[in-house]
Amino acid sequence: MHPMHWKLLARLADGEAHHVRTLSPYVGVKPQQLNGLWQQMPAHVRGLLRQNDGYWRLVRPLAVFDETGLQQLAAGFDARLVHECTSSNDLLLADARSEVPAVHRRLYVTHSQSKGRGRQGKSWQSRLGECLMFSLGWTFDKAQAELGPLALVCALACQRALQQQGLAAQIKWPNDLVVGGDKLGGILIETVRSGGRTHAVIGIGINYVLPKQVEQATSVQAAFQTGIGPSAATVLQSVLQQLAQLLPQFAESGFAPLLAEYQAVHRDQGRSVSLFKDGKVQFEGRAVGVTAQGALKLQTADGEREVVNGEVSLRPKEKLQTTVAEAKTRYLLLDGGNSQLKWVWVENGVLGPVERAPYRELAPLGEAWRQHGSAADSIIGCAVCGEAKKALVAAQLPKEIVWLPSMPQGLGVRNHYRNPAEHGADRWFNALGSRRFTQNACVVVSCGTAVTVDALTHDDHYLGGTIMPGFHLMKEAMALKTANLNRPIGKVYAFPTTTSNALASGMMDAVCGSILLMHSRLQEKTGEGQPVDVVLTGGGAAKVALNLPQSFILDNTVKIVDNLVLYGLLNWVEQA
Questions:
Q1: Sheet harboring 303-307: ordered strands across?
Q2: Nearest-CA neighbor of 116 among 187, 183, 170?
Q3: CA–CA separation, 475 vs 486, rounded Å?
Q4: How does the average pLDDT of the chain come out, rounded?
Q5: How far apart are CA 104 and CA 304, in angstroms?
Q6: Residue 500 or 213, more confident
Q7: Closest by alpha carbon to 352, among 228, 225, 215, 238?
Q8: Which of 148, 163, 510, 542 has the highest count of CB atoms within 10 angstroms of its CB?
Q9: 197 vs 167, 327, 468, CA distance in Å?
Q10: DSSP labels, 422-441
């Protein structure tokens, strides 16, 4: 396509409405020429356009970038945009083999590949705008043989990033990104040895729009039933940030410190599987873990066997032998918060898209049950919303709800709250859910109507924590009880010089200060040198993470996990 086509498509790719008066000067044509330009687009893109009173918009966002936007979101990387190529991996491999001094942190983003490829010689199929495709160079002072787990590390970085955006992706060993049985993305690692160092070329493809031509596939947009999800730019930026965090960690410490986290999001962990090679079953058994070298540990009838990364492909067995305790495979999980209800269907241990509704309008819950509820074995939830709102939820569901309370102990975690009955069930299940994302001591923070900051030791003692008003409640209190402060909230600054900004900054400092103080207490109890992580959840989590001190972020692991309560309930369903 001509550069003008790419400029026009990149401007419209956000799915927002743009007037032809702003589009034409940006593209460099007259307004009346835009229609002719659009008619030259590929057919599957051309049909997405909607026009109304001079405004143009696409019915869905696309994974298309412009050079300026890419440079902004890929700060810290040598980012290059190539609209069309054979393969972005080919571009980096050519650089690594040429006289170019370094490919470390070099990034190629492309929109169309004529010879895209995946693992084991398979081709990667995608249409323009439907797939996020890029390759990243990273140089290691390691031999090629030591980089076996690299693909698993990259898969974990992608999974983390997608999780942060609210997408419950898992990993199918070694490095496929999946949602249930459907493939979301893949990773291809290729290496070049030069000058005593290994240059790794990390090729990543993530379906952004559902590829209709590919069977058993899903996408970022398909994972959100409303069709509203993160932009392609947000996904790319989040993945790059996670890669920038995990790759240096892997270079220094190897894969062993990441094993537990990888296994927690490994789709087939603990399940019976069949391993195929060249279309034939090689082994059958139960996937019991992964080694520090990235091999799959398979418990077979002949004993435990280690399967090397890349040797075979992994597929769940079509017919699993289950015990009575494992027979229930479909649940509806409920999170009854103060202001809204969240729910999610769980099938074979995999979370579907999370839905939500205010208590005054729970009809979507009833409709969801009519569509999906017939196969549900049970409904399990936790609630802090009170009995009246729980009754509204029950009125939408024909099956009894099992509301789980906070407990003296569960799943190996001991609750030190003096009276567990008065301890919020959401705080308890947040603590249980945090164990899917860290095995270290951790501060668990929920940023909702209220902000709770709780402490969990490395040996699974829940020590309790603090409760404070959430951002909205703080603003309401200041508006109602303080003269002249009923005004819009401003922005957070280190040294605010307006009242609106002072309000925003004071509220953020209160929350961040509470987190830092709890972290310091838990660090003192845990001992110097022992990690203390922070797990953030709730609507204000991302905002809080951005305002924690940069030195604290660099020295500690801070994770954002949407819907942590639901992961706690899932842990209970799977393990209790």
A1: 303-307, 296-300, 280-290, 272-277, 313-316
A2: 187
A3: 8
A4: 87
A5: 38
A6: 500
A7: 225
A8: 163
A9: 36, 51, 51
A10: GS-HHHHHHHHHHTTT-SSE
From residue 266, how far is each of 150, 177, 263, 427, 557 by CA, in Å?
16, 10, 5, 25, 21
Residues serving a catalytic function are 426
Report residue 370 CA to chain centroid gap: 29
DSSP state of 144: G
What burial letters (b/e) apply to 297-307, b meaning 16+ CB within 10 Å?
Answer: bbeeeeeeeeb
Rounded to whole angstroms, the Cα distance separating 211 from 63 reads 13
Hey, how many other C-beta atoms are within 10 angstroms of the C-beta on 474?
A: 20
Counting Cβ atoms within 10 Å, is residue 76 exposed (0-12), middle (13-18) or buried (19+)? exposed
Tell me the pTM. 0.57
What pLDDT does 278 receive? 67
Mark residue 345 as left, alpha or beta (left: phi above 0; alpha: psi -120 to 50; beta: remaining): beta
Question: What span, in angstroms and rounded, lies between the C-alpha atoms of 496 and 513?
Answer: 17
| Residues 473/490, Cβ–Cβ less than 8 Å | no
Q: What is the pLDDT of residues 137-184, one digit of tens each?
A: 999 999 998 999 999 999 999 999 998 888 889 999 999 999 878 899
Q: What does the pLDDT look like over 396-437, one tens digit per residue?
A: 998 889 999 999 988 889 999 999 888 999 999 999 999 988
Which of the pair, 478 or 65, is modelled with greater confidence? Answer: 65
- Name the residue type at position 175: N
* Residue 114 backbone dihedrals phi, psi, to 5 degrees: -85, -20
Amino acid in position 176: D
**What band does 316 get if pLDDT is binned at 50, 70 and 90?**
low
Identity of residue 137: G
> What pLDDT band is residue 518 in, cutting at 50, 70 and 90?
very high
From residue 312, alpha-carbon distances to 18, 174, 200, 276, 527 in Å are 48, 10, 22, 6, 43
> 3-state DSSP call for residue 575?
helix
Edge-to-edge strand list for the sheet holding 78-85: 78-85, 106-113, 131-140, 197-207, 182-194, 176-179, 170-172
Angle at alpha carbon of residue 115, lines to 211 and 62, rounded to 5°: 35
DSSP state letters, 208-231: SS--TTSTTB--TTTTSTTS----
* Token pair for 232: 């392609």
Residue 309 and residue 149 in contact, taking contact as beta carbons nearer than 8 Å: yes
Within a 13 Å sphere around the CA of 140, how many CA atoms are in the beta-carbon half?
Answer: 24
Tokens of 547: 């305002």
